[in-house]
């Protein structure tokens, strides 16, 4: 995959339009593991790009053409780029500062938080942070005398902001949100649960993993004295991706109703460097599952949540981690799988071109694919599960969810299956997204929560529970 290894080439174009000379700038040295990304020509014609050579973190570099040499512009244990799942990512831009100098404005992530910074002099590599309200950044682009940022924070939903710097380009003089995905959210700030970045021990001695913990928050209600909240733990998709500590109203739905929520960046997630990212190579279904279980146990041990009311949820690759945790471990008392992968062999055989060998690197050969596929171990499911599935899903065919549902039904384990006409891999219709959230809530509340839900929700039938 692009984040494993890739190459960056420069081609020289002749007058008749042919490439007459080719130079491999980065990625060609077999002794140097790197994955260059986001190449750009500066206004002066210099080539800049981001790569993770030597320190294992995506840092900005430049190519000295006359010497065919690569030099780091900065050297920091921080990620200045994201995995190249899609085209068009823009993590840095060139801006003109005083004395006609070209400076670089960039975003970077360190310890679960995004920062905006400026490098005035690529020779000295000095990175100056710029103070903005966003703690999570996606893309940057330059406008006329300004910048535009795509970002968010614990209290700001995904938004676009216009940023103006002073004449020296050394500090922010104006920050204005010009578009918000949820402009009314600030009205309910007293209900918003702010994430706490937690670092917890994994099953590997000396190795830690990370998660965002959201405590239940509601100014109108107070829990009974001594009662610990139930926990919903989420395993993100990808799996080479990262969950972020930004305002997500789907998470706030749970925390405003008395639940604690943990969003886990298990080993294999991005944002913490190559070594962390590669923990999942050959270990998908083991490291991610262990880290999710370790996170839940850590929160119980620290008195944050009720150990008898631990639930897990996830979609797609996160749904696979959810199903694997429920089949192969006994940490969680109930779970929800949203279009989750149940059959790794089928996924490996039928996935699209971009991911054609992705599963091989994450899991291994046919033996491992069979051993780690929850669909081959349905007899090991022993706690309640609710499954949500789109009937047009080409990535995870509906038969996988149906097979798990049927096996649990025959085994006598409480189970429910929700199928959506017209939905594919990931739900798009608002009414289905809402229904999925609500039915998870009422399913968990009825089976392990020991409480009535606050909302007027009509529960669907749960087999082996409802007469």
UniProtKB/TrEMBL annotation:
Protein name as catalogued: Peptidase S9 prolyl oligopeptidase catalytic domain-containing protein
Domain Peptidase S9 prolyl oligopeptidase catalytic: 250-449
Listed Pfam families: Peptidase_S9
Signal peptide, first to last residue: none
One example of a Gene Ontology biological process annotation: proteolysis
PANTHER family in UniProt: PEPTIDASE S9 PROLYL OLIGOPEPTIDASE (PTHR43056), PEPTIDASE S9 PROLYL OLIGOPEPTIDASE CATALYTIC DOMAIN-CONTAINING PROTEIN (PTHR43056:SF5)
GO molecular function: serine-type peptidase activity
Entry superkingdom: Eukaryota
